[in-house]
Amino acid sequence: MHGLEKPLPPSFFFFDPDQRIPADHPLREIKNLIDPILEDMSEFFDTLYAESGRPSIPPEQLLRALVLQALHTIRSERLLMEHIDLHLAYRWFVGLSADEPVWDTTVFSKNRDRLVGQDVSQRFFEEIRKIIDQHDLASNEHFSVDGTQLEAWASLKSFQLKGEDDQSESRSGDDPGNPSVDFRGQKRCNDTHASKTDPESRLYRKGAGKEAKLSYLGNILTENRNGLVMQAKACIVSGTAERETALALVGQEREWQEAEVKLMTLGGDRGYDVAAFTETLREQHVTPHVAQRQDRSSSVDGRTTRHPGYGISQRKRKRVEEVFGWGKTIGLLRKLVYRGEKLVNWFFILRMGIYNLIRIRKLLRGTVTA
Q1: 139-152+214-339 has which fold?
Q2: What confidence tens digit (pLDDT) does each residue in 196-223 have?
């Protein structure tokens, strides 16, 4: 006999969401790492809000939601609100009860902007760094540096002559909302053109023969033991931006370690094999373990390359690509959805901190050998 499906009647019952999440669930392990960090940051959050007025979204919940977005590759904040509304584990992770309404997307974005105006992502990153130091998970002497292209949230159609509102002579009238643009025969460069959508983005290509795109540059300093990110910064691209930012990241690392004359090594690709860069590193007591250029004389000679440590650094520096690989396939960094250097840098640092959380979770479980 064919059984008939009965509609679900309204139900009212009590349950503990914490008991519904498995003990070995990855979100539980991440939450156990994040909660003490957010508790330590509570006093800092208090300084960001007035004592009167309507309560806002708790910044702790907002940050957990942003972490959740990166962990599960949820492309937009509107879609993030839908996922939190439907998924019990997501509600539990963020800190919402089963019947509590999820925030409106516009309200969430405005509250997020309040945190962007402060140095919240950098503080969050530094609190994660304290966990790394506490458990001695990173090398404090051997590092690698690299930069990656972050495609801006702007199209080449928006890349127009500076000072002109519309290039009507190069546009056809077939579709005013999305006109066809003919760039044939035009010389387009950052000196004469700028994006109308994201003026701080720059036309850039990472290597010879590759397509030029409106982009930013994401830079990281990793340690060579477990590939954890020690320092991070996104910046406006230029011909020297990678090397200039690398020096800045090395300086930040020295400030963090409170060591001025401690010897360090720094691995990097051929793009860092520039005399001015390597000489500056040596003045800062950092040995440049950068790959040697073959098209011209190298600034790194046999006095450096003859040591076994140089070969080790060359092998270890490739782990930087693991960070960028995660960032672009999982962490929503392949195509940015934010505009402006400040906002891009805020989210880049946040995503690098989230990558460290994932690595820390595995290292503390012993699934990765140090």
Answers
A1: Nucleotidyltransferase; domain 5 (3.30.420)
A2: 999 999 999 877 778 889 999 999 999 9
